[in-house]
Design a protein that fits this description.
Number of strands: 10
CATH superfamily of the largest domain: ABC transporter type 1, transmembrane domain
CATH topology of the largest domain: ABC transporter transmembrane region fold
Helix content: 55-70%
Structural class: alpha/beta
Radius of gyration: 37 Å
């Protein structure tokens, strides 16, 4: 896990090196400023020698740095000199503390940005099956919340941990310079803390993994209610949604309470052990001063001050695994997404195609989802420039059939041929470049009209080409009346436009890319008469010189289709032209009679 996170750290390694260097310098200055308490206290107690005992590295360092400032004959001048040096060192130290903090903060933000962008980019390239198995709220939770939680791990491991580690290393070096024996006693805290906290860490890791899933449920319910608020209000479903949200929120709160109860055990345990060690060190040090006379009182006091200064960073280091468990659980969820194979990784196609010359053939095609048959033994040919209409009851498999053409799904039986070549041999990118889709549920983005029409390829088309496509789609007139024309931002899901206007924008989008294969989920059924007329005119222009698959809701719109397929429970039960199917007197005839009978009733009303 850490190795994979470090891959995101590598591009920003220079920030880490500078942060590490700044923290090291700050820690060294902090430790050295504390050692100046020895000559300060020695002067205060009127001892003959102001420097540390033992002649070690600490004695040598102070002798070469502040030795000339210390004179037992002039204690006040000596104290004043030591104070000025301490102030100067503390000032410089805090400059490096600020610098290290800035570098660390930038490091964690840029790593989090890269991680968030990597998850988002990978998500877009996952197969549709993955999205069908995963709730929208869980996806949003992974991209936004889990990456933010992982940021805390980077904060702990890269910034605070490095800073605390430097302080611990410098403090231990200073303690060893004063008394190696007392330092060894003080360091007993490390293995004790590690051993005692391991069971807590394991429970926290498992708990946070479950908790992230429960948080995703809250996000999922919230997303569903916000996107379907009209339905909620129409059916007075507020009490039901209150219960759903309360259940998800209550489960998360209970889980967080359990985890917090366990997490808070680490702090009192750490403090109890640390205080016990400090008291033990104080007792043993007092014996060295009063009994063995191997240490001076000024050194013991400084030693204890350094030990007490050592405890907070040491405690934070010992708690780092505890606080990291929530971030590790979030990181596991992120890498579970990143490990999911993308469409490109699953794609076996190697052939590039640029046009459709002959047509598209389905040969005994079948498709199952989760072992449930959706399509069975579908065979037909759509000739280049022809129109194939698909009709049937809801759930008959019409949408799934057309989704197989651009390989949103792979057939589980049979094959689909483009100009005699298995579509699985063609690369996804080139296959989808042949296909344009205008669906009943028009998708528009919170962007300008221009960018919605030229979606994904704005730099390929000029303003004149975009306007030409809009005119062909009967959209230019209403676009020109918008406040900023083609620069008008449409709002989320194009809420500033009517249904007919949104549909014409989608048709303009398809006209602009000029695909040889068009999949049209007829979208005129929910429009008023005038909007339907304008949209139908645009559709007629769109159909010209293209191989078209139409999912038909209004049978009157497919009278001139070259071939009509009637689907029932995933099978083609009838096929032929409009007149041929009416003459058969079968399923198509019944659908036609029912639809026109209903229309006549509406007209009479």
């Amino acid at each position: 896990m850490f190795r994979r996170l470090l891959a995101f750290l590598r591009p920003h390694s220079w920030r880490m090196v500078l942060a590490l260097l700044s923290n090291a310098i700050a820690a060294a200055l902090d430790g050295l400023s504390l050692t100046l308490l020895i000559p300060f206290l020695s002067a205060l107690f009127n001892e003959k020698d102001y420097l540390p005992n033992g002649g070690g590295w600490l004695h040598s360092l102070q002798a070469h740095t502040i030795g000339r400032l210390l004179d037992p004959r002039y204690p006040m001048q000596s104290l004043r000199g030591v104070i000025f040096v301490i102030l100067a060192m503390v000032a410089v130290k805090n400059v490096f503390v600020w610098l290290g903090g800035q570098l660390g903060a930038a490091l964690q933000e840029y790593i989090t940005r890269d991680l968030r962008q990597a998850v988002f980019a990978h998500l877009q390239r996952l197969p549709l099956r993955w999205f069908q198995r995963t709730k929208t709220g869980q996806v949003m939770n992974t991209v936004l919340s889990d990456t933010e939680q992982t940021k805390a791990l980077i904060t702990e491991m890269v910034t605070k941990t490095l800073q605390n580690l430097m302080m611990v290393i410098v403090s231990v070096a200073v303690l060893l310079g004063m008394s190696a024996r007392l330092t060894l006693y003080a360091l007993v805290i490390a293995p004790l803390l590690t051993l005692m906290l391991q069971p807590i860490l394991r429970k926290l890791r498992r708990g946070h993994r479950r908790l992230r899933g429960e948080y995703g449920e809250i996000t999922s319910v919230l997303q569903e209610v916000v996107s379907g608020i009209r339905l909620v209000k129409s059916f007075r479903g507020e009490p039901y949604e209150d219960r759903r949200f309360s259940s998800a929120s209550g489960g998360y709160a209970k889980g967080m309470t359990r985890i917090t109860r366990i997490a808070y055990l680490s702090q009192p345990l750490t403090e109890l052990i640390g205080t016990s060690i400090a008291v033990l060190v104080l007792w043993l040090g007092a014996r060295q001063v009063l009994v063995a006379h191997s240490m001076r009182g000024a050194e013991l006091i400084t030693f204890m001050i350094v030990v007490m200064r050592l405890l907070p960073p040491f405690k934070q280091l010992s708690q780092t695994p505890t606080t990291a468990q929530q971030s590790l659980a979030a990181a596991e969820r992120i890498f579970a997404v990143l490990d999911a194979p993308t469409e490109a990784q699953l794609d076996q196609g190697t052939i590039e195609v640029a046009e459709l010359r002959e047509g598209i053939t389905f040969e005994h095609v079948g498709f199952s989802y989760e072992d449930e048959p959706v399509l069975e033994d579908i065979s037909f040919t759509a000739k280049r420039g022809g129109v194939v209409a698909l009709v049937g009851a809801s759930g008959a498999g019409k949408s799934t059939l057309v989704d197989l053409i651009p390989r949103f799904y792979e057939p589980t039986a049979g094959r689909i041929l483009l100009d005699g070549r298995d579509s699985r041999e063609i690369t996804l990118r080139s296959l989808r470049s042949l296909t344009g889709i205008v669906s009943q549920d028009t998708v528009l983005f919170n962007d300008s009209v221009r960018n919605n029409i030229a979606y994904g390829a704005g730099d390929r088309f000029t303003d004149a080409e975009i306007e030409q496509a809009a005119r062909a789609a009967n959209a230019h007139a209403f676009i020109a009346e918008l406040p900023q024309g083609y620069g008008t931002v449409l709002g989320e899901r194009g809420t500033r436009l009517s249904g007919g206007q949104r549909q014409r924008i989608a048709i303009a989008r398809a006209l602009l890319t000029d695909p040889p294969v068009l999949i049209l989920d007829e979208a005129t059924s929910a429009l008023d008469t005038e909007s339907e007329r304008l949209v139908q005119e645009a559709i007629d222009r769109l159909l010209a010189n293209r191989t078209v698959f139409v999912i038909a809701h209004r049978l009157s719109t497919i009278r001139h289709a070259d071939q009509i397929l009637v689907l029932d429970r995933g099978r083609v039960v009838e096929r032929g032209t409009h007149d041929e199917l009416l003459a058969l007197g079968g399923a198509y005839h019944r659908l036609h009679a029912l639809q026109f009978h209903q229309r006549d009733h509406v007209a009479e009303a």
